[in-house]
Amino acid sequence: MSTDRRKFLKHLGTSVLLTSASLNSFAAREENEIRLLRAQKRITPNDKIRIATVGMGIMGFNDTNAALTSPGVELVGVADLYKGRLARAKEVYGASLFTTDDYRDLILRKDIDAIIVATSDNWHSQISIDAMRAGKAVYSEKPMVHQISQGLAEIQAQKETKMVFQVGSQRVSSIAYRKAKEMYEAGAIGKINSIEASFNRQDALGAWQYTIPLDQSVQTVNWARFQSNAKEKVDYDPKRFFRWRNYREYGTGVAGDLFVHLLSGIHLITGSKGPEKIYSIGDLSYWKDGRNVPDVMSAVVHYGDTKEHPAFQVTLRVNFVSGDGGSSTTKIVGSEGVIDLGGEGEGFTIRKNKLPEAPGIGGWDSLFTYTEAQQKALLDDYNKRWKEDKRNRQKFPDVVYKAPDDYNASNDHFANFFDSMRNGTKVVEDAVFGFRAAAPALACNDSYFENKVVRWDAHNMKIIV
Q1: Is the model more confident about 304 or about 342?
Q2: How many folded domains does the chain comprise?
Q3: Who's near 161: CB < 8 A, 6+ residues apart?
Q4: N or C: which end of the chain has fewer CB within 10 A?
């Protein structure tokens, strides 16, 4: 029996037998109950955390709602460059809510403890640094930077200010991903060698053709501020503002938006600091609506042999016009099994098979091309050398783990953020972890647009020229 197999069985104990080869959701329910008890804990006035959100688009509202599920959290204000979203925020959170089109009005307020940065990608780094230097904790949407060159400065700002900083890739807090990490470390799949990870979509909204309001105009949108940090200024374009993900000037395309989720989960489970080589290809296949980023993109990312893990390769794929109707998965492949994580961290399945000790003979083999005498001699020798139980691939019952139906990883991600603010505990996705996931994702863009292999120094977090 391999060492990995012994570790795995020791880790599982009798749970496989007790649950008919399934972890089911017992452990998940237990962890979820802990989270619920934490949420029900009484909060004193001194424990109250006052937040503000910059950028009230889809993620701004979703992040704010997730943050408010944590006890003792109060929304003080929001900022957005479209007047209609400020009006909507008052409808949702109350007429007394402070609203502004300038994020600096929020970070300078003394009654705000933490800032959620949910703007277009090109503003993530600047707002985060300004907020930390103003004494605010920061929850930054992914990717934490728009350009790789911004990463070390943002890490340095966090170190200098010592403010709590967390990046918003929620699967890093998922109880399913944490359990998958335990199973991986226990040797559940043997020695890792490859990972397949993908996001497929087949609808206009999934491809970022978001609804544009009827009252959009230069009077309702602060277009000058939105593009003030862009290298090239263009005339007002509502598609560039309300569908900014489709434009390199403001977003990071499918790589920065979705590859970064996949890499965050992979780095959590494997303990990796990052890859050493990145190459990507892509096409604008279907959504030819003015966007300047691909809607189908694939990347091959190579992770070298390190103290954290053996060498393995990752294939990443996003397809915004996939005939399968849409799906997401991460399959971590090892020598003795596969961890198959579907969706956004709701659960996983471990399928285990072990290579037979005997090499095999006959079937799709060259045996039949030899003389009958040679075939008989070879078969007789094989049967003497290998007993029946050594000739077949070993297959083990699937291990299935499911989070509770009402579980939400985003809520946990914010709970971890606020725990760090209150108790000084380590955040689950700090600036270093966030950058180590973002940089290889953004390097996929560099590889695609410049048609080259990008070499990355994961330890020192810099491109190798």
Answers
A1: 304
A2: 1
A3: 132, 133, 135
A4: C
